[in-house]
Design goal:
2 copies of one chain form a homodimer. With about 240 residues, chain A is an alpha/beta fold. Helices cover about 30% and strands about 25% of the residues of chain A. The interface between A and B is medium-sized, with 33 and 33 residues.
Chain lengths: ~240, ~240
C-alpha cells in the first residue's frame, strides 16, 4: 500500500505541488522517502492522484501529480453528525470514527448537559485538534474527502439552521418523555442530520425545541449506549437501515 | 434510577442473599446505602428483582429480594462475537461495547496476526479483567444477562467448534483474496457467529480455513475500519440488517 498524503493545494494532473509542513515532515522524517518514490496524494475534496516524490529539503517536499485515480466512493447516504461535546478526550474517537464511517460533516454542540466548559475547548484548541484527527483518520481509512468539523454551537443554534434533510435526534429508551421510533420507521432519505447527546442526555427543553423544529426522535435498541459509542452505533444503524452498508 | 447489583446467587423471590464481595464494597463504601434502601438485583442470567438492603457489615451486605421484575428484553438476534485479541487495553472497550450491544457471548481469538503474546494475556489476568468489564457494562447499560467471555483459543480451534448458526467472517475491502458479500446478501438468521480480525487482518491461511469450514465472508462499506471499532460496527450492522435494531 502506497503512503497517502493530504495536499489541499493539489489541483492539476501533471503539476508539481508542495506538501503542507506536517505532511512534508511525515514524508521526510517518518517515512524517509526519497525523490522518485511512488506515493498517493488526495485533496480532501474527493480527488486522488498517483504521484512521485520530487525535490526534498530539510522541512519541505514536493510531489509530482502523475495521474488521476478513482477515489473510494463516498457513502450514498450523506450524514451530518451533530454531536454534543463529550468529556475528556472522548471526542477524539468520535471524530476519528465518524470520518471512518463516511460522515460528511461534524457539527459540535454545547448542549445544556455538556460537561466541558467552552473556555476549555477554546484554550485547549480542541477544534483544531479534531480537524487534525479528521485528516489523520481520512488518511488511514482511505477516504479522499475530509469532513469539516464545525466549532461548537448551541443546540438552539443548530436547530435554527434550515435543513432540507430530515433531522433525527437520538434519545435514550425511556429517558425523555417523547414519542420515539425505530430508525426503520422514519421516512427514508439520501441525507440526514443526526443529533446525538452528551453523557447526561438531552434536557427536556432541548427535546421540546427539537420537537417544535420538526426533528424526528429515534431510539436504538433497549439498552443504554455509552455516549462515546452512540455516534458510531447510530451512523452505522442509519446507513444500514437505508441500504448503504 | 435505583442502583443495580449483580448477585449470581439470587434465585428465590422473598429470600435474603449475600452480595459478592466487590458488589458489597460498592454498596457500602461508594454508594453508602443503609438498611431499608431500595435497590435492584439481577442474577446475570436474565432475572431481575426489586430488593431492599438488609444487614450491612464492614465488608458484607445482604439484600432481600422483594419482587420479580421484567428485565430488559434480550436482542432477538443472538450474536456470538469471535474477536481476535487486540493490542494494549483495546479489548476493554470491545468487551464493554459488545455487552452494551446485546452480544450473547464473546470468544477471544489468538489469530496469526494477533500482536499480543499469550503469556502476557495470562500474566496480566486479562480474561478475568474482561469478565469484570462485562459485569460493569451490564450494570451500566441495564442488561440482566452477563455474556460469557471465553479465554483465548486459536482461529482453527474456534472454526472446529460445530455451529448451527451461520458464521460470518468480516474481511477488509480488497484485503483478502476472497469473495465477500454485504451483510444483507447473506442468509438471514436469528443467530450468528461473527469473526472479527486483529489490527493486521486475517492471514490467508485463516481465510482459507474459514472458507473450507463454510464460513461466509462479509465486508462493511469501502473504507478501512479501525480494529477496535470494527466489532461495534459489525454487530450494529448485523442486528440492523436482521431487523433487530
Amino acid at each position: 500500500v502506497l503512503p497517502r498524503f493530504f495536499v489541499p493545494q493539489a489541483e492539476t494532473t501533471g503539476s508539481v505541488v508542495a506538501l503542507p509542513d506536517d505532511e512534508a515532515a511525515h514524508l521526510i522524517h517518518v517515512l524517509r522517502l526519497k525523490p522518485g518514490d511512488a506515493v498517493r496524494v488526495f485533496d480532501g475534496r474527493g480527488r486522488e492522484w498517483s504521484a512521485r516524490v520530487g525535490e526534498i529539503g530539510k522541512a519541505h517536499a514536493r510531489v509530482q501529480l502523475d495521474a488521476s485515480l478513482t477515489p473510494i466512493a463516498e457513502p450514498q447516504v450523506v450524514v451530518t453528525l451533530a454531536v454534543a461535546v463529550l468529556k475528556g478526550d472522548k471526542m477524539d474517537d468520535v471524530v476519528r470514527d465518524a470520518v471512518m464511517l463516511g460522515v460528511r460533516r461534524v457539527v459540535t454542540l454545547l448542549s445544556e448537559r455538556t460537561e466541558i466548559a467552552p473556555r476549555l475547548i477554546q484554550r485547549g484548541q480542541r477544534v483544531e485538534r479534531w480537524r487534525r484527527i479528521a485528516v489523520a483518520s481520512a488518511k488511514q481509512c482511505g477516504r479522499s474527502v475530509i469532513p469539516g468539523v464545525d466549532a461548537p454551537i448551541s443546540v438552539q443554534e443548530a436547530l435554527a439552521e434550515s435543513s432540507a434533510a430530515p433531522r433525527i435526534m437520538l434519545v435514550e429508551p425511556g429517558a425523555n418523555e417523547v414519542a420515539s421510533r425505530r430508525l426503520r420507521d422514519l421516512p427514508r432519505s439520501q441525507e440526514a442530520v443526526l443529533f446525538i447527546g452528551p453523557e447526561g442526555g438531552w434536557s427536556s427543553r432541548e427535546v421540546e425545541l427539537a420537537g417544535a423544529a420538526g426533528v424526528h426522535f429515534a431510539t436504538l435498541g433497549l439498552l443504554t449506549l455509552r455516549a462515546d459509542a452512540a455516534p458510531l452505533v447510530a451512523v452505522t444503524a442509519l446507513r444500514t437501515t437505508w441500504d448503504d452498508l
